[in-house]
Amino acid sequence: MKTVLITGCSSGFGLEIARHFLERGWHVVATMRNPGASVLPASERLRVLALDVTDDASIRAALDAAGPIDALVNNAGIGVLYPLEGIPVATARSVFETNALGTIAMTQAVLPAFRARGGGVIVNVTSAVTLKSLPLLSVYTASKAAVNGFTESLALELEPLGIRLRLVLPGRSPETQFGATARARMGGAMPDAYAPLLDAVVANVRGPGPVTHAQDVAQAVWRAVTDPATPMRIPAGLDAEELAAA
What is the pLDDT of residues 187-216, one digit of tens each? Predict the structure, then answer.
């Protein structure tokens, strides 16, 4: 029986990915900052562990508790949607620490065990905004684009060792807390000149059109983990697929 460790499972994509693997008979290690907030169904194949991907001690403790794993899904992430002039550098740093450096730290932490056994799969969940740039997402897009470059380079490094890496790129989704967390990081000084653009972008994010559902992402991650023939970049959701095709 194989085991997958997934980060960021308290809600949204991570929650659905964990459910998807459980339903297909895998052992699942679902991690989140606050395990008490878990809404995952009880299962003898499920362990819910505390994990802060920005804290080295937390990473070590979670991996020690998890034991051997066959796949790592780096899904934990935070967003920010705001004009750059109004984003404090400390906020930008926190976005990179979670989205990019957290992914790097988790990946580095599992490599010795994967190398020793001669195999393993790492799937990094980024974003379709790296396929088409959008305004007011410069910091978030940069953090996810960094993970894309990291993953594609590291894949070449680890392929001779039997370790496979893939990227899953979701589009906009009504089923995640991205909007809430992104808006929570607003509040810095914003010149009035940006107000019309901010209103237009927020309306577009909430507007009609194709979207990505959490199940789309779970299915894409499942394919990335279980099917070696999947391409490096896997768009998840109709909107992401349209962007990739364009």
Answer: 567 888 998 998 888 777 777 788 899 999
